[in-house]
Specification:
Helices cover 76% and strands 0% of the residues. The longest helix is centred in the middle third of the chain and has 46 residues. It is elongated.
Length: 404
Amino acid sequence: MARVDPKAVLEGRIPGRPPVALIFGVAVSSLCALLALALDAVQGGAAFWVGLVLAILPIPLLIALVLTLDRMEPEPPRVLVFSFMWGAGVAVFGALVLNTLGLLYITVPVFGEVKGHYISATFGAPLIEESLKGAVLFGLLWLRRNEIDGYADGIIYACMVGLGFAMMENITYYVRAYEEGGAHQLQTVFILRGLVVPLSHPLFTSMTGLGVAYAATHRRGRIIAPLLGLLAAMVMHGLWNGSTAFGGGGLVLVYLLDFVVLIVLMVIVAVERRGTVRRIETYLPMYAGTGLVTPQDVRMLHSLSARRAARRWASSVGGRPAARAMTDYQLAATELSLLHKRAERGIAEPHWFETRRDALLSLMGLARQAFLRVPRPSAPQAPPWAPQGQSGFLPPPPPGPYGR
C-alpha cells in the first residue's frame, strides 16, 4: 500500500511539513503562561500552590466534556492544544498587562478608586479579554478557514481558549480568597468558580466562535458575523462582571443566563450533528460505484454507536491495524460529506474541492485495503451493520468454478 499520512489528509495539510506556525504559537503562549504564573507565585506566596492545584483540578474533566461534542469529526489535537495554550498564555498575560494599565491610567484617575475598579471590570475587562481570546479564533478563520466546518467547531475551539483562560484566572481568585478569608472563603470561591459555573469563560467566547464559524461556512456575513459574535461575548462577560453590584439577585440572573446559553449551544451542536448525518446519507451513496461504500456502510456511518461497534468489530477481526483503518475510513467519509456541505453553500473553490475530494476518497480506499489485508484467523466474519455481507469491508467472494 502507498505511504500516506492519514492525519495530513484529514487535516488538509501537506504531508511531511512540520506545523512551524503552530509550534511557534504554542511556544510563545507557553512563555506568556509561565510569566503570568511567575507573577502569581511572587504575589501569592504559599497560597499560590493551593490556587494552582485547585485551578488545574477540574480542567481534565471539563476538557473531556467539551470534546464529547467533537466525536463525529474531531478537530486536530495540535490546534486544540494551541487554542488552550493561547487562552492560558497570550490572552491571560495580555489581559493582565492591559487591564492593569487601564486601571492605573484611565478608570481610577477618572472615576476614583471604587467606581474605577467597577467600570474597569464591567466594561474594560470584557473588551480586552474577549478581544484577546477571540484573536486566535479570528486567526483560525484567516489562516485555517477550511478547518472550521460548522458551529460545533467554532464552539470547540472557543471552549478550549476559554478553559485555558479560566484556569489561569482562577489561580488569582483562589490565591486572593485564601489570603483574605482563609480556607472557608477559598472553599466558597472554588465551589462557585470551579464547580457551579466552570464554563463561564468558554460560554462567553463561544459567542465569538459562533460568529467565526458562520463566516467560515457562509458566503455572506463574513465580516459582520464574527464582529457580532465578539460583541455578544463582550456583553455577556460585562453582564457577568457587572452583576456584583446587584448582590445575590444579580448573580442568580447571570447564572441563569449562562445556563440558558449552555442549553442553546448544546441544541445547536445536536442539530448540526443531525445535519451532518443527513449529508452523509445524501452524498456518500453517489460514491457507491467506487466500491468504497454500500448502503449498509452508509448506515454504519450515520450513528456514533454504530461507528463504535464497527471499530470493535474491526479490532476483533484484525486487531489494532484494522481498528485504525476503520477509524481513518469513518473520519474520511465524514470529511467528504462536510466537503460537499461547503460546495452546497458555494464556498468551495472548484479545484480545491476536486483535490480534497480525491484525497479523501484515496484515504478511504487505502484504509479499506489496509483492513482487508490484515491477516485473519478464520473465514471472513460479516460486520454487524451488514449481516448479509453487503459491505465494502469484506473481501469479494472467490469466483465459482465457471467464473463470475
